[in-house]
Amino acid sequence: MPGTRKLGRTSDSRKAMLRAMVTYLLESGQIQTTVTRAKEVRNMTEKMITLGKENTLHAKRQILAYVTKEDVAKKVTDVIAPKYADKNGGYTRIIKIGPRRGDAAEMAIIELV
Known about the structure:
Layout: H1 11-28, E1 30-34, H2 35-54, H3 57-66, H4 70-83, E2 92-99, E3 106-112
Antiparallel strand pairs: 1-3, 2-3
Helix pairs in contact: 1-2, 2-3, 2-4
């Protein structure tokens, strides 16, 4: 079924989790999570970086509306987006790292390229 993955959460909880994960990924450069969550985080992270490349006031406000920290939103437009100025997408990489010990969920590292 196309569309977003539900990730076993209510829509509000899922949106809050994704916002937090996208913010942390943009802040630190890489995070470790499950493969399905990583794929969802990749979608929104790439959208935020693409918005940052526009470098308009409207784009900055859209980023600030999604990213939960002001300094990270500023970092997207000032540091991260200019780095990918010549690239059309593919700003993140997902590396599978095997099953998690507790419940054998497939784990992955998602990082900015």
